[in-house]
Amino acid sequence: MLIVISEFMDPAAVEALASEFDVTHQPALVDDLERLAEAVSTADALIVRNRTQVNAHLLSCARQLRVVGRLGVGLDNIDTAACAVRSIEVIAATGANAVAVAEYVITTASMLLRGAYASSLDIAAGRWLRAELSRGRELHGKTLGLIGFGSIGRVTARLGRAMGMQTVAHDPLLAADDAAWSSGDVARRSLDELLSEADVVSLHVPLVAGTRGLLDGARIAAIKRGAVIINSSRGGIIDEAALAAALQRGHLAGAALDVFEHEPLNSGTVLAQCPNLILTPHIAGVTQESNVRVSALIAGRVAASLRASAAHDR
Q: Are both 2-96+288-313 and 98-279 of the same fold?
């Protein structure tokens, strides 16, 4: 059985798969659609990150595909409906990168509220900005608002509480009597209530029809003045132009974006020159440790799926 891996994967996990299956691991395949289509034409399994588009065209080339492994949690780059029609199993690494994302959220929240960590060049040049940089705020006692309260949101809540934050969350997919609401001192809120209360708003939802443009201009304007926003989930959930305007006029105190409507950003982005804005290239969930966990989980589950498929064929 052949496994094609089109983006980077931890070498130990690749070696584990190669001990049992034929493996083609070429991280550059994601940027060569013709070679990718050829590679998957005889593949039984395909393992991807977020850049490979497992769409109708690619699936039509993968005539004997049995399973798709996603080195991450979001599935917006995979046509799950088309996979279901062909009984192709789709496996995500749910929970394996939760700690990495949660640490990103709490770290950037602290940096944004404190507002003192972009001053190294000024200080080294002799500009002693002690008065200006003494106006930062602490995480302790602030309210963390989580839009989406799945596995990553719950780890983020736990880290926030460790820093002395109060936590509120909005998740319409969780029933009011779900145990998650009672297990961690997290208060359930409507979206509008959360936006009016939270000092730190953090997004933890997938990009689907119901979440696209969720934080539009009106909702951004309704956010508590002086709050900060962090998006480590998916681009397209926040209206980037409205966010830039809110930062420029001082309604929001800061923002951190790891994901964008179009990736990579172009040089003319509306996000250029915004105050107290942290931009990172879709790496919130990617650390040395999380890459090992995610890769090992997907390698194990893809291997198990292929074994089960082979046994069924016999």
A: yes
Task: Match domain 98-279 to its CATH number in 2.120.10.30, 3.30.1330.10, 3.40.50.720, 3.40.1380.10.
Answer: 3.40.50.720
274 close to 247: Cβ distance less than 8 angstroms: yes
pLDDT for 267 equals: 87
Residue 183: is its pLDDT beyond 80? no
How would residue 313 be classed by pLDDT, with cut points 50, 70 and 90? confident
pLDDT tens for each residue of 145-169? 999 999 999 999 999 999 999 999 9
Please determine, looking at this structure, whether the domain spanning 2-96+288-313 carries the CATH number 3.30.470.20. no
Q: What are the catalytic residues?
A: 234, 263, 282
Is 0.85 topped by the overall pTM?
yes
Residue whose entry in the numeric block shows the structure tokens 């094609």: 4
Q: Could you give the angle at which helices 151-162 and 98-114 cross, rounded to 10 degrees?
A: 50
Residue 266 per-residue DSSP state: P
Contact 203, 233 (CB under 8 A): yes
Give 53's DSSP letter: -
- Strand order of the β-sheet with 89-92 is 22-25, 2-5, 45-48, 67-70, 89-92
Asked if the bond preceding 264 is cis, omega within 30° of 0, the reply is: yes
DSSP 78: B
